[in-house]
Amino acid sequence: EDRRSALEGQCGQELCVKSILVRDLQKDRGTFSASDLPLTDSFNDILADDSIEVVFEVMSDGPQGIEYVGQLLNRGKHVISANKAAIAGAFFELQEAARAAGVHFRFEAAAAGGIPLIDPLGKIRHLNTISYLGGIINSSTNYILSELSLGKPQDEVFAEALTLGVLEDDPTNDVEGYDARRKIAILASMILAQEIDEMDIPTIGISRLSEEDFVWAGSEKRRLKLIAALRQDDLSYQLSVLPTALAETDSLTNVGGIMNQVQLKGDIIGSLVFSGTGGGMLSTAHGLWTDFLDVICSRPGYYSDVGRIKADHSMERTAEFYLREAGKTHGKVERISVKEALDLRDKGFTIIEIA
């Protein structure tokens, strides 16, 4: 609201919030007075209102998000989404729906929050063969790992994260790596121009990491981070989301708290780094509004799955891993495949890639 006049000046027209879809009209909304907000619990009211031109979609439900966004696009409404589950689950389906209707479908806030990443990547991919994209793309786990690296007790760190709003009441999507998996699936779909099933991405979260693992990392002059990455060559690609022990000289080890950092390597541009606040209410809102300005000021652009289909070699990739058996305080380092690492994970081992 404080920036309404500046936004309206940029857009060249008056902005009006027509409806806000909520599940519970009676819910206490804190400092927001419900009587001052145009709340509705009817999606169909929004869908049928032809005066609504742009819809911000910020649900977390994947299937319902796909259904709602698809209907909105088919109705000729521009959609700006932060729903990672929906975008990862139906990336090209939603792109084609937007193309058919001639409207925008934008999603800057769906990966790395407030960092301008999606829009630049959309341009860079046309001019470069991107051999690597990866880094820290989940703020919750980065906060937890940063605090645990200081030697703080795990219970205390998780309690602080909940209090600060860094972690949700059900932290599963974050600590098991599912949130990062969805984000890297979206980024990989853009780069590879082919369908990526997020369930095919080898993923290990941070829930099994213990004090002993941080002690080991420190003794090796390394720090633990959850790294999501895409690697590709001419014929194949490799995706992963894995706890990773990085050398203290790696710039990613200096990315603490809720900060994110994504590194990219292109054959023309060379190495690029995108860094900033990855999560939180304001960062997400910033990403949504940058998309809104593009909707107002630019023509729609779309992503198509017309690339040469590359083989998924994610499981075949080999690396050094620190392997600690359940109940033991020390582990061992072996060079094995990602598939072998996942098999050991399923047998109760704690798995950490060494990079």
Commentary on this structure:
By secondary structure, the protein is α/β, with parallel strands linked by helices. The chain has 13 helices and 14 strands. The chain folds into two domains: 128 residues, Rossmann fold (3-Layer(aba) Sandwich), CATH 3.40.50; 207 residues, Dihydrodipicolinate Reductase, domain 2, CATH 3.30.360.10. Strand 12 and strand 13 form a beta hairpin.
Q: Which residue ranges are poorly predicted, with pLDDT under 50 across at least 5 consecutive positions?
A: none
Regarding CATH, which class of the largest domain? Answer: Alpha Beta
> Would you tell me the structural class of the helices and strands?
alpha/beta
Mean pLDDT across residues: 95
Q: What is the total tally of β strands?
A: 14
Any idea what the radius of gyration is? 21 Å
CA(first)-CA(last) distance: 46 Å
Please identify which CATH superfamily of the largest domain we are dealing with.
Dihydrodipicolinate Reductase, domain 2
Number of domains: 2
Strand content: 15-25%
- Write the CATH architecture name of the largest domain: 2-Layer Sandwich
Largest sheet descriptor: 9 strands, mixed
Q: Helix and strand string, N-terminal first?
A: HEEHEHEHHEHEHHHHHEEEEHEEEHE
Q: What coarse outline follows from CA principal-axis ratios?
A: globular
State the helicity in percent bands: 25-40%
Q: What's the total helix number?
A: 13
CATH fold label of the largest domain: Dihydrodipicolinate Reductase, domain 2
